[in-house]
Design goal:
This protein is mainly alpha-helical. The protein folds into 2 domains: 160 residues, no CATH class; 60 residues. The protein has a 3-stranded antiparallel sheet. Helix 1 runs antiparallel to helix 6 and helix 2 packs antiparallel against helix 11.
């Protein structure tokens, strides 16, 4: 049975976003995140939603792949919404009341605002790994941390560890899907009973999941060792990344526009 591609996995298509230098995309994502947290109104979130939609369209990444992670955040989004919207007995103005618990209009508005911010942050930042290969991401991180090498910081090793950690997120999700599908085919049920019963049903998934992850990590370590990987010092690259004028233009103008949206709205 084929397991669908998971959230955050690189999508190999030809697009203007894919052709940008990885350092440009990292800088734009950093400014996008900063501006998103500076925005304090729905107008700002609306502006960032338009930006994410335009970039997603330009990247040629299928929306169903970019939005796959929203379902995984369902519990967090629901908790965020309820934590702000529900009020106990002292609340005077409520949209709906069930016993001593009421839905506060202002709290509901705040909950929707923070939930939208989480969704935009997830979708926007996922475009980095969806449009950037692991090799490009590693080289970009190492290049950005290179000034710290003068202080003895192993920038190459840190960049490699960060990249492997990022790549293991979709790999872990894919392994979990495979284990769940295999156990469902053998009669396991994950959608029956109450909350506690469903949580317990997932416990047997953890053992084969961690066994597979440790096996994959060992295979990766052996592969790197057999190829004589010794960290960032002395490494050569088949394709040297160069910041083109288009990269600088996107970074400066795009970053300024993203910050302007957050500051203005």
């Amino acid at each position: 049975m084929r397991v669908p591609s998971t959230f955050g996995q690189y999508v190999p298509v030809d697009s203007p976003v894919h052709s940008l230098d990885a350092r440009t995309k990292i800088g734009v994502i950093a400014l996008f995140t900063l501006g998103l947290f500076l925005a304090d109104g729905f107008a700002g979130l609306g502006g960032y939603a338009v930006v994410v939609a335009v970039v997603l369209w330009a990247s040629h990444v299928p929306p169903r792949i970019a939005l796959r992670g929203v379902r995984a955040l369902g519990v967090l989004l629901l908790f965020t919404l309820l934590a702000h919207a529900l009020r106990w007995q002292p609340a005077t103005v409520t949209l709906l009341r069930v016993g001593p618990i009421g839905v506060d209009p202002e709290g509901l508005r705040t909950g929707v605002f923070f939930a939208m911010r989480i969704v935009l942050l997830m979708v926007g930042t996922s475009l980095l790994t969806l449009t950037t290969t692991p090799v490009q991401l590693t080289d970009a991180l190492e290049s950005l941390m290179r000034p710290a090498s003068a202080l003895g910081v192993p920038s190459g090793e840190i960049a490699m560890m960060l990249t492997i950690a990022l790549r293991f997120i979709p790999t872990t999700a894919q392994e979990a899907e495979r284990v769940i599908i295999a156990q469902t085919a053998r009669g396991a049920r994950f959608d029956e009973g109450g909350l506690v019963t469903r949580v317990r049903a997932y416990v047997p998934v953890l053992v084969p999941l961690f066994v597979n992850l440790f096996r994959r990590a060992e295979d990766l370590a052996l592969a790197m060792d057999s190829r004589c990987y010794r960290g960032g010092r002395g490494r050569t690259r088949l394709h040297a990344a160069i910041m083109t004028p288009r990269d600088w233009l996107v970074l400066l103008l795009g970053g300024a526009a993203l910050l302007a949206i957050g500051i203005t709205f």
